[in-house]
Amino acid sequence: MAKVDELLRECSVRIVTASGFGTGAFVAPGLVLTCAHVIDREACGPLRVSWSGRELAAEIVACHAAPFPDLALLRVPFSEHPCALLDPAVELGDSLYAFGYTGEEPGGDSVTLEYEGPSLRPDELHKLKQGQVRPGFSGAALLNQRTGCVCGVLKATRERTSDLGGRAVPVSAVFSAMAWLVDKQQQHHAADPRWHNCLEPAQRARLQCCSDATGNPFLGESEEVIGRDDALRRVFGKLRAGNHCSVVGPPGSGKSALLRLLRPRLGEQLNWAENEVAWLNFRAIQTLREVQEALVHRLGGQRAGDWRSLMHVAPLRLVVLDDLGGMDAGANGLKMRRWLRGLHDTFGTRLLPLSNERLDVLFRKDDPTRDSPLAGVDPIPVLLAPLPVVECQRLVEARLARSTLPFAGYADLCRQEQQPGALLARCAARFEEQRWVGKRSA
Amino acid sequence: MGSSEELVGVKLPNGATMHVQATVLGGEEDVAFGWLSFDEVSKTLEGIAGAISGAVQKVKPTKAVVELGLELAVESGKLTTLLVKGNGKANLRIVLEWAT
User: Fold this and answer.
1) CA–CA separation, A18 vs A309, rounded Å?
2) Number of C-alpha atoms within 13 angstroms, CB side, residue A404?
3) Residues of chain A neighbouring B2 (CB-CB closer than 8 A)
4) Which of A147, A240, B1, B93 is deepest in the core (most CB within 10 A)?
5) Is a pLDDT exceeding 80 seen at residue A284?
6) What's the CA gap between A253 and A391, in Å, rounded?
């Protein structure tokens, strides 16, 4: 039976861009996880993935830019490969292993590192020591030898010529940025037991215990949104004044939660009916035709080409552009951006884009002097900043209100300002670790 | 933090690439493998040359010889320049002559 480190090497790929190369790992069929800085969106040229002697063309599915979370997901037209199992659990002193493609060893090289703890700064990277992290290792999956699962994605070296160590993006940040990956992982590993078969019995038992998420008060969506009252007021203020409104915040900052809060209040706050607002998610929409189809469907029509006549009869007051980072930054996306901006010019429809970065950064290839349809829609966007310590405490207390657990067990995780997604992921991981320790000792 | 030397790939403004021996000054850096940009070196050279040329023009010599000892270095993943001692035991040597 293969050992889990062998299987990790089988999951690893070399990613080659026009400006260099890095590493990645299969995390779902046809999907490669790596660092955003590896793929270098500014550089023109093809993106290729090398795996087991094959050269595969790759396309970007998701990109959450550096410095944090600095993650990207690539799609390749091939799915007959093993996938790494992601799990956020990591403890001080855990021994970690990674396999990557460096300048000196383009065929692949290994490194072992020790987990030193989190960095108490907004990016909350894993700090690692006692291993030499060379250029080329970016994007390598970091295997926790205690749990048998991947707990991070290697991102940086602390000193390229010595064994000072490096830094890695935690898997909690991966799940926070790409929550849908959790389902993909579960589906894959339920159907393909290769990774589970490589685990030690104790590792399997731990995983089985943690996989029962029932009862974890930090998982799942909550009706209550903490610390975003001011952001919500600003959104309504802008829309009431007849302006567009852009909401910008990193993954896990609560953009989707804000939308859930906003949706039922549009009627009360702005006197708008539900059918006067369209909600588009650019993780699912790829072309202008799909945009038009979605709007026509909202307006009660059948064919994409009917959008103009339907808008003349009952124009939409607002189009919400969720996950705008998923929109193509090139010419295909530019068509969509021009068309959406045109809705306002012709029908007075306001736009509410939500994105991880400011629109002028997201679509920097659009010429700002001549043709940048979305760059100027809202010069002062609503920024979702990290929650202050007092709001972090309120958030954890609100989640714990559903259980009998004491706040004291999580108070130390609230001692710095942070985004709600990251805070909940850390609390959820601690809850699972404690549950596992409790079951083991029982 | 100590420093050591290694060969690094550099991309010139015209797109040509080469490998150069550079002093690694350390510092944290992302570890995607890529060609380093030569832009910072060009800017440094232009800056030093501009500063010296301004000073030399004020004293109006009939002949001026400037010798710079520059070494390439990598710091936090970026190519940079060190002003170092050259063969003449000086990192910057300027000879000015006036015709009598």
Assistant:
1) 45
2) 0
3) 162
4) A147
5) no
6) 13
Which structure tokens are listed for A422?
């990251």
For residue A177, the model assigns a pLDDT of 81
The per-residue pLDDT for range A310-337, each reduced to its tens digit, is 999 888 999 999 888 878 777 888 889 8
CATH class in words for A4-210: mainly beta
Asked if omega into A381 is within 30° of 0 (cis), the reply is no
Cα–Cα nearest to A192, from A436, A7, A6: A7
Return the structure tokens found at A316: 């939409």
Taking the C-alpha atoms of residue B40 and residue B48, their distance in angstroms, rounded to an integer, is 12
Residue A36 sits at the chain B interface (C-beta within 8 Å)? no
Q: Is the pLDDT of residue B1 over 50?
A: no
Q: Which of residues 55-84 of A touch B (CB under 8 A)?
A: 66, 70
Closest partner residue to B33 (CB to CB) among A21, A66, A161 is A21
Euclidean distance between CA atoms B58 and A66, whole angstroms: 47
Q: Helix or strand or coil: residue B5?
A: strand
Tell me: pLDDT of A189 over 80.
Answer: yes
> Which of the two residues, B3 and B36, has the higher pLDDT score?
B36
Task: Locate B36 and state its tokens.
Answer: 């380093």
Beta-strand pair A166-170/A149-157: antiparallel
Q: What ipTM, to 2 d.p.?
A: 0.72
Superfamily of domain A229-383: P-loop containing nucleotide triphosphate hydrolases (3.40.50.300)
A247-248 and A141-144 strand pairing: unpaired
With 0.80 as the threshold, say if the pTM is over it: no
